[in-house]
Design a protein that fits this description.
alpha+beta; 7-stranded mixed sheet; 25 helices; 14% strand
Length: 687
């Protein structure tokens, strides 16, 4: 079966677009082939700075013959209706077939489409792909109308069979498909022809081009870590930077250089961020001191002087960049350690808008300080320290380093607070109050950091709720879902009990506390679903009193989920539902509520008496366990009712002929319902 090779060779493609572009090329071409009836065995896409490539294996040589049967109008339909059907089918009247149907005689058309050769289909699909490629940004050049991310120079469209290779007849804006490409821009710029994907990849390697992005990444990391290790150092891992740099070179050459002595005193994060953002350099750290002492750059070519000239040029540019960073850092330290201290920066935030309906950044800081102080006793923090930490937490937003490198906000605040003599706990809150930013980030655990982090997130939630700026659909411009999940994780992972309804009201009286709590419950379902807890189990716990205590709610849901995963729990659920259904139907029919009065003296069978005893024993265990918030014990006691309830239903008839016995048994079912629903609302459990 034929194989297909496609290459679209252009000027440099931005690194951030390459991976997505390769995936788009694969999807557009393979979807187009399959839609035209040309199936295949496998496909793989590749990208380098100057090319997108696609290899399709085991493709059909031609699309299969297709036969379609199409139902038309009735045989006695108006002539215009029949003519319209004929035009759509591309047939004449004598090619139609009349058939008897329950609705009378109807016309049917059989449309045959012969198979088409692969070359013809590939040409159509590839031209359509090139002309409609979904680049985030594209350009036109020359006098043509074709748009591409950068000027497109050549196209390979090659079908290979056992008999040999043939070029797909295709021309797009004067660029005719062929079988040739070029290697590395500097080390092997001459054109060469290929006969298959294997030949293509092999010749590219000889021409100093690594086609596979993962191979370039592996080569960079291998050479970088080896160079660092040989000097007793280690490379600071950065997978995002590694992928980006692999998209900047076709033939990676790793070079390591020194950082000037004048800059070694800068915080390592400042060095790392400056080198990454401005130069795409990797940081090399001394594991003994934690200092960043060298850098690694990745050149796109081999040179006679083994990169010495490249390295010298990079060192010169880096020195200028780091001189700026050092200037910012020293200026910031002068401000932070002055008589006014970090208060200078806080005052400047009075002129920075947080939101036009929620005031300035300084207003935000004031609200955070008040709420942090109120929350402190509930999370084990000192109120004075928590308020102090909140007032300094965002001061670094006015600093020069953060203005230059916004991603260092918080971290720099920690450095500045430490430099001014603040306690380690207060300084740490500047960095940690933003956490967690992502689902894999650790949550703050130090009490002061917890207080400030909760205050920041709760203020954001209640503030935007008060002005009715809530997330809608997929839109969440103020990251309120992330803030809600942050509150949930901080509380749960630190085992903190907090009644959020009261906290919401304290933070902002204008917020709809019930609606906001419902929003958090929705986020909680997502959080627990990822841990294997079903949404109906969570609903059964949310329905209980005290559902604004997220930590207790999670403990209850986990305990219930564990019980329902057992045979006793599952069977108890069925017994409960049976009892609840019979009771509900009887109450509706009789117009009364059977909620009290079950008496063992009216029990007629041993199973009935045993259930009375089992309910007494369960209630004696469940009530104190619930008071102690020991959900595992309470759930276990509830699950132990499974056997007695099953035996009861097997032995007795609820709707007995004796009215007293019937009423007593219905009241007994009411005890089952009330005891079980004192633990969780089992009526909300599905199944």
């Amino acid at each position: 079966m034929p194989d297909l090779l496609i290459e679209l060779f252009s000027e440099e493609i931005p690194a951030r677009m390459q991976s997505r572009a390769a995936a788009d090329l694969k999807k557009l071409v393979t979807d187009g082939l399959v839609e035209a009836g040309l199936t295949y065995a496998s496909a793989a896409a590749f990208s380098t700075p100057r090319r997108l490539a696609l290899a399709v294996e085991g493709m059909l040589a031609e699309s299969p013959r297709q036969v379609e049967e199409r139902k038309g109008p009735k045989a006695d339909a108006p002539e215009k209706a029949i003519e319209g059907f004929l035009r759509g089918a591309g047939l004449t009247r004598d090619q139609l077939e009349e058939r008897e149907t329950p609705k009378g005689r109807v016309l049917f058309a059989t449309i045959e489409r012969p198979g088409r050769p692969a070359q013809e289909i590939v040409a159509e699909v590839l031209e359509q792909t090139i002309r409609n490629f979904p680049w985030p940004k594209s350009m036109r050049w020359g006098s043509g109308s074709l748009r591409w991310v950068r000027p497109l120079h050549s196209i390979i469209a090659l079908i290979t069979t056992e008999e040999g290779a043939s070029i797909v007849p295709l021309e797009v804006e004067g660029i005719a498909a062929g079988d040739s490409t070029r290697g590395h821009r500097f080390m092997a710029p001459d054109a060469f022809s290929v006969t298959s994907f294997e030949d293509y990849e092999t010749k590219l390697k000889r021409a100093r081009v690594m086609l596979r992005a993962e191979e370039r990444e592996e080569a960079i990391w291998h050479d970088a870590t080896n160079a660092a290790f040989a000097n007793g150092l280690e490379v600071v891992e950065d997978r995002g930077l590694l992928a980006e740099v692999a998209g900047l070179v076709e033939w990676p050459v790793v070079l390591m250089g020194p950082i000037g002595e004048d800059f070694l005193g800068l915080p390592p994060e400042v060095l790392q961020t400056s080198m990454k953002e401005h130069q795409k350099f990797f940081s090399v750290r001394n594991p003994k001191t934690g200092r960043i002492e060298r850098f690694i750059t990745v050149a796109n070519r081999e040179t006679r002087d083994e990169g010495a000239t490249i390295l010298a040029g990079n060192e010169k540019v880096l020195a200028a960049r780091l001189a700026d960073a050092k200037f910012f850092w020293e200026n910031d330290l002068r401000v932070a350690t002055s008589e006014a201290g970090m208060g200078t920066w806080v005052a400047q935030l009075e002129n920075v808008t947080f939101h036009n309906k929620l005031g300035t950044q300084a207003d935000l800081i004031g609200r955070m300080a008040t709420l942090s102080r109120a929350l402190a006793p509930q999370v084990g923090a000192d109120p004075e320290a928590a308020e102090r930490a909140a007032r300094l937490a965002k001061a670094d937003l006015s600093s020069e380093v953060v203005y230059e490198f916004p991603e260092l906000q918080g971290l720099m605040g920690r450095y500045y607070a430490e430099a001014t003599g603040e306690s380690a706990e207060v300084a740490a809150a500047a960095q940690e109050h933003y956490a967690p930013l992502g689902p894999s980030d650790a949550v703050p655990t130090a009490p002061i950091s917890v207080a400030v982090a909760l205050a920041e997130k709760i203020d954001k939630l209640t503030g935007f709720w008060a002005i009715d700026e809530k997330p809608t659909g997929s839109k969440d411009p103020f990251a309120l879902r992330r803030a809600a999940l942050g509150v949930i994780r901080i509380l749960v992972e630190n085992d903190i009990s907090l009644h959020l309804s009261a906290v919401f009201a304290q933070a902002n009286e204008g917020a709809e506390a019930a609606d906001l709590l419902s929003f958090l419950h929705d986020r909680l379902k997502v959080y627990l679903r990822d841990q294997g807890i079903r949404h109906d189990v969570i609903d059964a716990c949310i329905a209980m009193e005290g559902n604004d205590d997220i930590t207790l709610l999670v403990k209850r849901a986990r305990a219930l989920s564990e019980v329902l995963a057992t045979d006793d729990g599952e069977n108890l659920l069925q017994g409960f539902k049976r009892a609840n259904n019979i009771l509900s139907q009887a109450e509706e029919a009789d117009g009364v509520e059977y909620s009290f009065g079950a008496d063992v003296k009216f029990a007629e069978t041993d199973e009935e008496k045993a259930l009375f005893a089992a309910l007494d024993a369960a209630e004696a265990r469940i009530a104190p366990a619930m008071a102690e918030q020991d959900f595992a014990t309470a759930m276990g006691a509830m699950a132990a009712l499974r056997g007695p309830i099953d035996a009861f239903f097997e032995a007795v008839k609820i709707n007995a002929d004796n009215a007293t016995v019937r009423r007593n048994r219905l009241n007994l079912l009411s005890r089952i319902r009330s005891i079980c629903t004192s633990v969780a609302d089992l009526t909300r459990i599905e199944g």
